[in-house]
Amino acid sequence: MEEWVARHMDEPECFFMWQVEPSVIFGRNQDIYSEVNLDYCRQHGIQFYRRKSGGGCVYADMSNVMLAYITTADEAQTTFEHYMKMIVGVIKKMGIGASWTEHNDIMIGDRKVSGNAFYHLTTTLGGRTVGRSIVHGTFLYDTNMENMVASITPSDEKLIKHGVQSVRQRICLFKDFTTMTFPEVRAFFRNNLTDKAVTLTPEQINEIEELEKEYLKPEWIFGKNPNH
Asked: What is the pTM of this model?
């Protein structure tokens, strides 16, 4: 949907949120075999997908929300900074101090609540060739910590236990800082970052589903010589 919006919607800025069933989403240039614990994922019903942006593996489930921002701005760092300011500004409006790092993480104190990545494409809109930038990231309201750790590390019980403790010291869950429910937090983002909504037609959804097929091909997920 991000790619479809970037290629087809002639708007200077678009924002939407999405959620997935338990999934590992890894960067364009990563080797799935060294980054993802495929056995654990298959045993626990965790899906795995390759995205078109760079960066590392993330685990996502229905307890956290994914943020997507599409803009006509071309330059990566300028786009990142604008996006970070927007998201940090919304968090601050909720009464919670937040900041961002040079690694494009959003922090509450010294712990990470959101990781973000970027990619750029060129498309034709209104008869002109334009560049479109996509920034997307995680927002950890809550999550299954054991799945997060085990799906991208060896499934040894001691390692998982140590990994959960270690990761829990580096990341934070937004629910620990607010009395707002998860639906209230999502609504707050939507109300503070958007001023209108676009509803897609069935035909447009069909186009997105066609585009999705490319992302689901084994050669895209596993690489050019899939061994799965």
From this structure: 0.90
- The residues facing 69 across adjacent strands are 15, 135
212 C-beta neighbours (distance < 10 Å), count: 12
**What structural domains and CATH numbers belong to the chain?**
2-222 (3.30.930.10)
Of all residues in the chain, what percent carry a pLDDT higher than 70?
93
Give the other-Cβ count within 10 Å of 209's Cβ.
11
Alpha helices in the chain (DSSP H): 2-8, 32-35, 38-43, 76-93, 145-150, 157-170, 182-193, 202-216, 218-222
Burial of 79 (0-12, 13-18, 19+ CB in 10 A): buried
**Residue holding tokens 């585009």?**
211
174 with 106: CB under 8 angstroms? Answer: no
Contact present, 157 and 166 (Cβ < 8 Å): no
Closest CA to 130 of 139, 138, 121: 121
Residue 225 pLDDT greater than 70, yes or no: no
- Name the DSSP letter for residue 140: -
Check: CB of residue 140 under 8 Å from CB of residue 106.
Answer: no
In this structure, are residues 44 and 66 in contact, taking their beta carbons and an 8 Å threshold? Answer: no
Contact 61, 20 (CB under 8 A): yes
